[in-house]
Amino acid sequence: MSSNFPDFPQGSQGFDPYRSPTHAKKGGGKGWIWAVVLGIVGVLLVGGIAVCCGGPYLLMRFGFQVIAQQMEQQISDNEVVVEHLGEIQSCKLNFKKTTGTGRDDTFVFDVVGTKGTGEITAQYDKNAQKRQQLVILSATLRMSNGQEHEIINGQGPVVPPIP
Prior knowledge:
Layout: H1 31-75, H2 79-85, E1 88-93, H3 95-100, E2 106-113, E3 117-124, H4 126-130, E4 136-143, E5 148-153
Antiparallel strand pairs: 1-2, 2-3, 3-4, 4-5
């Protein structure tokens, strides 16, 4: 009976399919040190990127929330807002539309109320911003159906005429 394996003399260094392979260590076993060093460098790099990019984003988002809260406080009792939107459930600064106005003294807010949704474009006093206040000079409510209503006209809140 013939075998597919060549005949090797016993004790020779030939191929033995039943013997587990032996590997010689190369580099003296210091490869794990490099793995640890590269792991630490990788963690520091990813952490640095998160802080550099994520930190400013979170600060900007927090600032937008503060501005939206101030806006909501100033308009929540406005008769025009209550009439058309009802009680305000959500007021968020729309960054894209705010930058699209081309003005540095104008904010655009997306507002959701119990009676409807709309968009408020508000011009504010830049000098008051230096004192960390949001003083609205004029504001217009644009409803989702396209109707526009003046909320503040630069002289203070607009009071609708008595019917």
